[in-house]
Write a structure and sequence with these properties.
alpha/beta; Rossmann fold; 11 helices; globular; hydrolase activity; Alpha/beta fold hydrolase
């Protein structure tokens, strides 16, 4: 396993930390949730056998710093960050893009806003709740999470958020693979450090995002929408399934649940490779 080449990129209002491995066509991996470049450690080296693999910490997460720490976050600006990464690492050549969760929302916006720079997007469980028939309930959930965060703090807000992500009618905690790979377990401290920013800035902005359905329909031959085999019925899966239905495309199933790339990295990475190969 070779250590990645690291660098920093100045973008509007932030400095991004990024890592690059391998050789070949560029694959840009956009993390979601509280993850940064390290969330792809389980799949990046294998992908680098065929591709130039770029990962990065989104603005405000981990090693990517904001010029104004209290700045509001917008999907379009995060997508512009991804565009700057493409321009740096794959100038003039359309790239392959994978996004997970909130990173998948960034990838969707990147595809619709800058389609000339993207050869294919694989979007795993983007929580685009505005496409759901019960979108009003999800708006209420987002508002409840924010009110709880302001009034009671992080962990009560996370409890509200986790309850809202569960399967309909499921009174238990969301199904999860609790035994994480060693690398993932070692990232837990950084994950916790990123949580307040994620809950306070990313969740309300990203989960209010409405994708450009007509544009995505026109570009559907360059889009793979994926869901977890173990997360059927949970909110991000339902959003991905509803989006695929709206676009008249197949929902592809990847191993594990919402964080399958962390809990099932080998199997997840192999399916991702197949999806990327099929796109070229």
């Amino acid at each position: 396993m070779n250590a990645p080449t690291t660098g920093s990129l100045r973008v509007n209002g932030a400095t991004l930390h990024y890592e690059v491995r391998g050789e070949g066509p560029l694959v840009l991996l956009i993390p979601g949730g509280t993850g940064g470049a390290a969330s792809f450690d389980g799949i990046a080296d294998d992908l680098a056998a065929e591709y130039t693999v770029a990962t990065y910490d989104p603005r405000g997460m981990s090693r990517s710093t904001l010029d104004e720490p209290d700045a509001e976050q917008q999907v379009a600006e995060h997508a512009d960050d991804a565009l700057r990464m493409l321009e740096l690492l794959s100038p003039g050549e359309p790239a392959l893009v994978f996004g997970a969760s909130s990173g998948a929302i960034v990838a969707l916006h990147l595809l619709t806003a800058h389609s000339e720079r993207v050869a294919c997007v694989v979007a795993h469980e983007p929580p685009v709740v505005e496409v759901l028939p019960d979108a009003a309930e999800q708006r209420a959930l987002i508002a409840h999470v924010q009110d709880t965060f302001r009034a009671q703090g992080l962990m009560p807000a996370m409890a509200v958020f986790a309850a809202g992500l569960k399967r309909d009618g499921d009174a238990t905690e969301p199904k999860a693979d609790l035994k994480l790979p060693r690398q993932a377990a070692a990232r837990s401290e950084q994950t916790m450090a990123n949580l307040p920013y994620f809950v306070g800035r990313i969740v309300p902005s990203f989960m209010s995002y409405t994708p450009d359905i007509p544009q995505l329909e026109a570009l559907s031959d360059r889009l793979v929408i994926a869901g977890g085999q173990d997360s059927c019925g949970e909110l991000p899966y339902r959003s991905a399934a509803a989006l695929a239905e709206r676009l008249g495309t197949e929902l592809h199933h990847f191993p594990g649940g919402h964080i399958g790339l962390t809990t099932h990295p080998a199997e997840f990475g192999e399916l991702l490779r197949k999806a990327l190969r099929a796109s070229v």
